[in-house]
Amino acid sequence: MKTDILIVGSGCSGLYCALQLPRELQITVITKSDLESSDSFLAQGGICMLKDESDYASYFEDTMQAGHYENDRTSVDIMIRSSAEIIQDLLGYGVDFQREPDGSLAFTREGAHSRNRILFHKDITGREITSRLLSQVQARENVTLLEHTALLDLVSQGNTCFGAVIRGQDGSLQAVAAAVTVLATGGIGGLYKHSTNFRHLTGDAIAIACRHGVALKNMDYIQIHPTTFYSPHKEDRRFLISESVRGEGAKLYDKHMRRFVNELLPRDQLTEAILAQMEKDQTAFVWEDLRPIPAQELKHHFPNIVAHCAKMGYDVTKECIPVVPAQHYFMGGIQVGYNSLTSMERLYAIGETACNGVHGKNRLASNSLLESLVFAKRAAKDMAGRFPIPAAELPVPVDFSAYQDNDALVQEYRTLTLNKIAEASQGR
Fold this sequence. Notes:
The protein has eleven helices and 16 strands. It is of the alpha/beta class. A hairpin with a 2-residue loop joins strand 6 and strand 7 (160-167).
């Protein structure tokens, strides 16, 4: 197969990148599962936007403080300054954000934010944004979408990427010659017993990039979300109880139904407090009380959360729900510059699989969708301007025998990624 641009991943970063590329380019988007099984669809809370210059310093400081001041300051500035442009693009694609009675955009607040600067659509903001992007991409004649198609390897020579090896839905192996390859494969939650991520997100692209000598960064910077719905079944994907409910007034209680923490602390600090309380109480969870939020507001703003809790046997307007911390987000990943180019030529990385340093050691709530979109757009503009896109050709033949044992390959990649996380953790 030949294509101008190969994008691996169908989350918001991969889709938005495709939409920002010139229509004369042939673009192929592959995804390991179906088109809607990306964590972008799961994002509940919202997406940040700089409303006006008066909030810049505060927004910048909130992001830096949450990241323990290990953030790349230039990346943070780029993200914040680009936010209004990104929101205008989304509105142009038909994204339906909550509005005030006068028709203006409605903003809410979440943990560690000092002001209301978060746009939202009920409690399914990620689904609203990503589904609109997907519809736009599906309407583009120059984009081919391939579901249930896995990335197995990159094809490189020297320090240049020329494409990839993929496994199709029918199990067949194929080499793809691509002028430019974009890794947008999401997080690593599938490596963890308790995670809010889809189980198939196992960090394959990170392991593959590592095998080819591509630089990685902050591999041990892994965020635990403090509040996910507790389930005794370990195989269940943990359902996230959004930061927004605490921003709107939800409280956290110990086993005696006593409040024990400031619910608006940054995620890592709140997680530590919850785990400490669980250990003190010898419990598997703590209680979250959504009743301080008016019932009508709960049902209007958080219908998905209300429905899930009801499915699990809890009426959030009348009783507390059990919550527990779970792996949620990966701040590390494949090291990239401000235009999302990796250390290998013609290879870009965007979204959660990339690390441009914007989040530092801990991501501020509702910066994930924004960061993914900002740097996906920068990647598209960079690759379109950096090259005339060369003809896609593979410089070397591909030995498909190396990819026949899929189970062994999957295990090799899982082990390599986990080892890199462990190595990065040593001495921290």
